[in-house]
Amino acid sequence: MAVPPLIALENVDQTFDDGRIVALRQVSLAVAPGESVAVTGPSGSGKSSLVLLMCGIRTPSGGTVRWNGDPMRAPSAWTRLRRTEIGIVFQDFNLFPTLSAAENIEMPLFGSGLSSSERRQRIDAALAAVDLQSRADHLPHQLSGGERQRVAIARSIINNPSLILADEPVGNLDSDNAAAIMELLFGLHERRGTTLVFVTHDPQHAARCARRIEIKDGRIAVPVAGTAAKEPT
Q1: How many CA atoms lie within 13 A of 79 on its CB side?
Q2: Cα–Cα distances in Å, from 32 out to 9, 22, 119, 211?
Q3: Which one of 69, 122, 211, 215 has the fewest beta carbons within 10 angstroms of its own beta carbon?
Q4: pLDDT (tens digit, 9 = 90+) per residue, 115-145?
Q5: What is the rounded CA–CA span in Å between residue 118 and residue 87?
Q6: Domain boundaries, the chain
Q7: CATH superfamily name and code, 33-48+75-225
Q8: 55-102: per-residue pLDDT in tens?
């Protein structure tokens, strides 16, 4: 029996202002478990809208989003997925300024039913995964841009998600930090088999994925095979 895609969009539309603004139109995309997919395209083409639909932060105006073959419609179901199965990394970090690195990483664990010692073990493991053990008690303003993005990544993997969505995760970083963050993301993908979907303007980053899709004017253009990543088995 064929394994369904981890996440799939079927003829999805995203419109605003009573349909006068169209962000996405008739988008169909299936992402297999363990796959890496780069989403490229010019600014304003609908890339971020696609990511927000894939994690349920936005609701499609038309069409269907499926998780493991099941249609996702209830906001509560999306909330559970974001807590347990989907990690999100944004360009602007989205950290709470008054919380330490460790406390920011801990946020997705609240409501999980884990004890404080179990939460601490997960936080320590996530900090180790991004090599930030020595910065656990620092506030965001005490961290560099690269360190703040590492905190955001640690927060996204704290629940060992099946899918990581990264929207321009290195857009605010210098080239050295950008390279380090990309190595971190692809290392997590390769070691853990985590499905990775990320938005990027950098063709070299995109080429590392097994698949690249381009969005133009809210539509998927021409799929392009990646060059450096293996197809999922």
Answers
A1: 6
A2: 12, 27, 30, 11
A3: 69
A4: 999 999 999 999 998 899 999 999 999 999 9
A5: 19
A6: 33-48+75-225
A7: P-loop containing nucleotide triphosphate hydrolases (3.40.50.300)
A8: 999 999 999 999 999 999 899 999 999 988 999 998 888 899 999 999
